[in-house]
Amino acid sequence: MELHPDRLLPPDPGVRDIARRLYQSVQDLPIISPHGHVPPQWMADDINFEDPTSLLITPDHYVNRLMHAHGVELSTLGVNQKDFTADQKREAFRTLCSMWPIYRGTPVKYWFEHTFSEVFGITQVPSAATADAIYDQIDAAIKTPEFSVRSLYRKFNIEVMATTDDPCDDLHWHQQLIDDPTWDGRVLPAFRPDKYLEPARPDWNESTDRLAEVSGEDTSTWQGWVAAMENRRAYFKAHGATSTDHSHSDAGTEVLPVTEAERIYLAARAGTASVEECTALRRHMVTEQARMACDDGLTMTIHPAVVRNHDPEAFESYGADVGADIPHAVEFSRALQPMLSRYGNHPNFTFVAFTMDETVYNRELGPLAGYYRSVYVGAPWWFIDAPESISRFRDNVTTSAGLLKTSGFIDDTRAFCSIPARHDMSRRLDAGFLANLVAVHRLTEDEAVEGIHDLVVTCPRKAFKL
Q: Does this model's pTM top 0.85?
């Protein structure tokens, strides 16, 4: 396995030369990762990963969902298995290597090849014949001090990394890092309140009771719920948070009269609110989060429109978040209008909209970001953080929003060793996009150098207030 130095750069030789220079200008810039799912405990305890499978396969939805599509049971990959033996872990890795052809043409293959080569020095192509040798080489490496999480954090040149955290979390792992004089990195919590904003959920009342317990506010009333949310947002901000993250079935926002919000809230607490009322209250709660953001300055991000736990059998067997979430179409312009009409131009509000529905980039998100001062378009992620999608994103959004009203790349991953691969992929593709603009004389090369630097570091620092 040998990585081509010009991978993902444009095929035209003249344009490729420009792209190569642009890429080289940002190749060694630090990684800014303002949204991800790496557990903060890893950093706080400076762990070494146990084995190649639990590092590279079991926690990575991208990897195991495609094997599942080709007939592999998730249990054989270690998904939610408490007693997964050493032999089972090795066999799971053999399964990955023997099924290597299923990843051809996917970003997963690109990330794996970068990780294998650049992080672990693997030269063999994965296959049934090479699986054990690759496994042993990785296994030996991750047991050394050079491959502890903190060592890799520094090796990867990560400047800042955000985790994703429940509002009731005490953030003790983050505090442990803050208090550790030997730690010079930056790992920030991010406020993820979805389940507290979903009155239709069967566990909403239980979650709301927990919110009261942790915040010390009485959540038996609407105003008490608002106060509890403000309390927890302040707690997160005091522990370094700069953003909140929201994912619901749609991008809807509403502004209800206070008396109506109180009426529906009390009905939801009593278990008598209708589905329609719960939806209205949820959308009002989202708008309330925007109002709070204007006060406390936390960047608000949203990534709606995913059918969670699409496969009920997998949910029953393995629980939530095992790769069985499926995107669906979404509408933003009308959905966000109630919120943006109030807060869209507020000087302290920053709102980043992500999507898995590419059709809205040119039609809705680009124009919204190209008008409202608060709105930024989130980079492609989750199902569309692939080379082709990233290239289309730049084509579609730049027309109406330019470069500077986008979020910067978001890796959105718990696969720690793939973080450099994902950011490197984005830098190469942005270099190609800007090189084409230089080649047709729409930008000078100096402008393109400034532009790609902005995309790599300026945009995420600004959008996420870093």
A: yes
